[in-house]
Amino acid sequence: MTTIPLFHVLILSSLLFVIGFIGVVARKNTLFILMSLEVMLNAVGVAFIGAGSVWQQADGQVMFILILTLAAAEVAAGLALLIRMQKRYHSLDIDLLNRMKG
Amino acid sequence: MMLTALATIESLFYLAGLVAVIASLKVVTGNNTVHALLYLVVSLLAVAVCFYLMGAPFAAGLEVIVYAGAILVLFVFAVLMFGLGKDELRHAPKSNNLANMIAAMLLAFVVLVELVIIIYHGDMQQSLQANVVDSKAVGIMLYGPYLLAVEIASFLLLAGLLAGYHYAKPDGTEASL
């Protein structure tokens, strides 16, 4: 059995998740929103790894690898969109995007 | 010696978790993009130490190599491509650089000290070895019951690659794809 109680792992995970969520909601700079999304995904990974180590199953690490893949794909697409946005508006303020039509 | 007596798996875990939380707070509240990115690296490294202490060394290695090593480098490249625009410099903190530097170095140094303690602490190594879920089990799961998920993940990566290529290419080259 693991020596770290699952409850404490979940507290750490939810703390990180809430910090990331506050960043996503409160920031205006799109780059910071992407970074906060990374923090949130990482927090979910902590929860999966903790659960996997409590029950001594490999499933938690498998889910973590899938989350890692998701994060990589998300960052690639998100940063490409950010480059496009920087080219068009010369700013990363997310409020500029509410002018989009169509 | 006193450090090694105090060091149990739990206390190291809580310390690494504290570093991760503080670094994440600095990421979310930061003004300077590059500083926030570097704090994000510290946060990910601290979480990697947490993974190692939870008995998942494979996940800890992946966290360092893929997250901190690849995804964050992608971020840094993108930030360098943006250039630090006017609004960035205007909002940049008029800070005393030294205090900033010392705080960041302290966080990273805590993670380093933890790693050294873990490596040189024989009892802790043994008790960590007892509850490790090794990479062999993960590999068997990945290519057994989770095979379909792996295939879907590969399609997701392909989609990310195509999206990155399509959105980030210069405007004049529509004909090529």
Automatic annotation (TrEMBL), chain A:
InterPro entries registered for this protein in UniProt: NADH_UbQ_OxRdtase_chain4L/K, NUOK/Mnh_C1-like
For membrane topology, the record states:
Multi-pass membrane protein
Any single biological process term in GO: ATP synthesis coupled electron transport
| Entry keyword annotation includes Cytoplasm | no
What keywords appear on the UniProt entry?
Cell membrane, Membrane, NAD, Quinone, Translocase, Transmembrane, Transmembrane helix, Transport, Ubiquinone
Give the location in the cell.
Answer: Cell membrane; Membrane
Q: What does this protein do?
A: NDH-1 shuttles electrons from NADH, via FMN and iron-sulfur (Fe-S) centers, to quinones in the respiratory chain. The immediate electron acceptor for the enzyme in this species is believed to be ubiquinone. Couples the redox reaction to proton translocation (for every two electrons transferred, four hydrogen ions are translocated across the cytoplasmic membrane), and thus conserves the redox energy in a proton gradient.
Q: How does it assemble?
A: NDH-1 is composed of 14 different subunits. Subunits NuoA, H, J, K, L, M, N constitute the membrane sector of the complex.
Q: What is this protein called?
A: NADH-quinone oxidoreductase subunit K
- Name the source organism: Colwellia chukchiensis
Q: What is the lineage of its organism?
A: Bacteria, Pseudomonadati, Pseudomonadota, Gammaproteobacteria, Alteromonadales
Automatic annotation (TrEMBL), chain B:
UniProt keyword Metal-binding present: no
**Top-rank EC class of the record's enzyme:** translocase
Q: Where is the signal peptide?
A: none
Q: How does it sit in the membrane?
A: Multi-pass membrane protein
Keywords recorded for this protein, A-Z: Cell membrane, Membrane, NAD, Quinone, Transmembrane, Transmembrane helix
Q: Which InterPro entries match?
A: NADH_UbQ/plastoQ_OxRdtase_su6, Nuo/plastoQ_OxRdtase_6_NuoJ
What this protein catalyses is: a quinone + NADH + 5 H(+)(in) = a quinol + NAD(+) + 4 H(+)(out)
* Location(s), subcellular: Cell membrane
User: MF terms per GO, please?
Assistant: NADH dehydrogenase (ubiquinone) activity; quinone binding
* Record-listed E.C. numbers: 7.1.1.-
- General function of this protein: NDH-1 shuttles electrons from NADH, via FMN and iron-sulfur (Fe-S) centers, to quinones in the respiratory chain. Couples the redox reaction to proton translocation (for every two electrons transferred, four hydrogen ions are translocated across the cytoplasmic membrane), and thus conserves the redox energy in a proton gradient.
* Subunit: Composed of 13 different subunits. Subunits NuoA, H, J, K, L, M, N constitute the membrane sector of the complex.
Q: Which family does it belong to?
A: Belongs to the complex I subunit 6 family.
NCBIfam families xrefs: PRK06638.1-1
Name it. Answer: NADH-quinone oxidoreductase subunit J
